[in-house]
Specification:
Elements: H1 4-32, H2 35-43, H3 47-61, H4 64-76, H5 82-103, H6 108-125, H7 128-154, H8 161-172, H9 174-188, H10 191-203, H11 209-232, H12 237-257, H13 261-271, H14 275-294, H15 298-308, H16 332-355, H17 358-364, H18 367-395, H19 401-429, H20 443-469, H21 472-502, H22 519-547
Helix pairs in contact: 1-7, 3-4, 3-5, 4-5, 5-10, 5-12, 5-14, 5-15, 6-7, 7-10, 8-11, 9-11, 10-11, 10-14, 11-12, 11-13, 11-14, 12-14, 13-14, 16-18, 16-19, 16-20, 17-18, 17-19, 18-19, 19-22, 20-21, 20-22, 21-22
Length: about 550
């Protein structure tokens, strides 16, 4: 009944289909690149506009998963409310159904022509934009070639009474058919791929409408299962809420629609005489039905989700990334945005837990403050490793030239921040070098260090504002402050040399036990502290120079 040729055609066709969808989606994402954020911000001010965006973006990118990833990222960053996110999610379901409708049309000849044109653009013209559009066209063509092989694989099943009997039994038991559709779609991890299989079956007359409709409804539920499971392990509470809402929407819509499944099937038959298009219409009509049911009650549902899935309090010692999610790696624009937000957060963490705490560690000589700084530095190291590994993995993905440049800037920035944290700890440890674990510097010597610490703190605050606003005015302030730091460091070195010359004839007296501190120890501490502060200033300037727009 099932031959080796059928299995090979099915697997090969499915592989080509997956490859085509992924290739096309990647190419379109690269073409859209950073415009996605601007489009999203302009279209998602209202829930209905957010739903429209979900439809358009899912059709454009051939991926509801990519749309969902973007939605969660913008909710977490405050650019979108949870209500708007749920609107986009509902729209993405309709968008996926429109994609299914597009692939239901028998346009194999057009697809083959698209592959040839894609080859011309990708391998002959070879400009940056031509390569991207070539990738899109080749992917588009592979979708329909894969569909053709899937159809060929199912053709012999028309003469199999066992297969026809099984499909007939599914038609007699809609609940079982919904369950089968849910499970198979979850295994495929793609509702679009499962719909492609249903279209191929329908093209050969293997699916009656009584069987096809519940399978399609089940596919809508199954398409949310993977996202739901993956969200369980994430710390992003809004990601969990959106994933749970996605599944609940489909389940509740199925329960509401189930008593009307016969008139719904009649509507599908009335909509088209083509079995393949009937599959697509069944998906589209059920998605629109779900959207119309839930969209008017979105705000109420948001309140219910917040109560049912509250934000859990984190343990203070628990280290978790604040913005980065692995799912965002599938959408490089979002991944870069998340990494940038994580780096900005790390910069503020260094300010609050290290830079502002440094004077206490130096003045008091209390080991408690040094321990706090060392603990903070270890956490900075952890975040640095996590962010750097994330950016390296993103670099290995299929990203544009502009995204490669941005990725490189982010890697250098996080490395410089980690170096600043190292310098702060090394400087804090100087407070433990003096007699009785306290630095016995004179008031004048402290003023020399303060002359460097104050402009460095000012420059660091300007750096954080530069991260937040990307305003070149803050970068210019840092460059101006850089000269102040250099002058203060030079002054400190000159005064130490003068002190050393003046103290040559008194060095023997400093060896007496009743002296509070050895002058050379104080000089070394002062010089080392100044050098570490100078290095911090250099790291700040290096970050700005790397991130300045050319």
């Amino acid at each position: 009944m099932i031959s080796f040729t059928m299995v090979v055609q099915f697997l090969g066709g499915l592989g080509l289909f997956f490859y085509g969808v992924n290739t096309t989606a990647q190419g379109l994402q690269k073409i859209a690149a950073n415009r996605l954020k601007a489009i999203l911000e302009s279209l998602t001010k209202r829930t209905w506009a957010a739903t429209l965006f979900g439809i358009v973006m899912t059709v454009a990118l051939l991926s509801s998963a990519a749309t969902t990833v973007m939605v969660v990222e913008f909710v977490n960053s405050g650019l979108m409310t949870l209500s708007q996110a749920l609107g986009v999610s509902l729209g993405s379901t309709v968008g996926s159904s429109i994609v299914v409708l597009l692939i239901s049309f028998p346009i194999l000849n057009v697809a083959l022509l698209a592959i040839f044109l894609g080859f011309i653009l990708l391998l002959i013209i070879r400009t940056e934009k031509a390569k991207l559009w070539g990738q899109v066209l080749i992917g588009f063509g592979c979708i329909f070639v894969g569909m053709a092989y899937l159809a060929g694989a199912f053709a012999p099943l028309r003469s199999s009474p066992q297969v026809m009997d099984f499909l007939s039994q599914l038609g007699l038991n809609p609940v079982l058919a919904i369950l089968v559709g849910t499970i198979l779609t979850a295994l495929f991890q793609s509702s679009t791929a499962f719909m492609a299989v249903l279209i191929s079956l329908a093209n050969h007359g293997l699916l009656a409408v009584e069987t096809m409709v519940p399978l399609v409804i089940g596919a809508h539920i199954g398409g949310t299962i993977t996202t739901l499971i993956s969200s369980l392990g994430t710390e992003k509470i809004d990601a969990k809420r959106v994933a749970v809402a996605n599944t609940v929407y489909r389940v509740v819509a199925t329960i509401v629609l189930y008593p009307f499944i016969i008139p719904f099937s009649q509507l599908v038959v009335w909509s088209s005489g083509n079995p393949a298009i009937q599959v697509a219409n069944a998906a589209l009509f059920s998605a629109i039905f779900t959207m119309l049911i839930f969209l008017p009650f979105n705000r109420i549902l948001v309140k219910a989700l917040i109560k049912l899935i509250p934000q859990r309090k984190r343990k203070e010692q628990e280290l978790k990334l604040k913005f980065i999610t692995r799912a965002a790696l599938e959408v490089p624009t979002v991944a870069i945005s998340q990494a940038s937000q994580e780096i900005r957060w790390l910069g503020h963490y260094i300010l609050d837990h290290m830079l502002q705490m440094l004077p206490r560690a130096l003045n008091s000589g209390d080991a408690r403050w040094l321990n706090e700084l060392e603990k903070a530095e270890k956490q900075v190291d952890w975040y640095y490793n996590q962010i750097n590994n994330y950016l390296r993995e993103l670099f290995g993905r299929n990203i544009t030239r502009e995204q490669i440049v941005e990725n490189h800037k982010l890697q250098l920035t996080v490395k410089e921040l980690e170096s600043i944290a190292d310098c702060l700890v090394m400087m804090a440890r100087l407070g433990q070098k003096g007699p009785n674990r306290v630095i016995r510097l004179t008031e004048h010597e402290w003023s020399l260090l303060e002359a460097m610490y104050v402009p460095i703190s000012t420059a660091y605050l300007s750096l954080l504002r530069f991260f937040d606003l990307r305003d070149s005015a803050y970068a210019l302030r840092i460059m101006e402050t850089d000269q102040v730091i250099i002058d203060a460091h030079s002054r400190l070195q000159r005064e130490i040399l003068e002190i050393m010359k003046a103290s040559e004839d008194k060095r023997a007296n400093e060896l007496k036990e009743n002296q509070p501190a050895n002058l050379s120890v104080r000089q070394n501490i002062l010089l080392e502290a100044g050098n570490w502060l100078f290095k911090i200033g250099e790291h700040i300037s290096s970050i700005v120079r790397e991130n300045m727009t050319v």
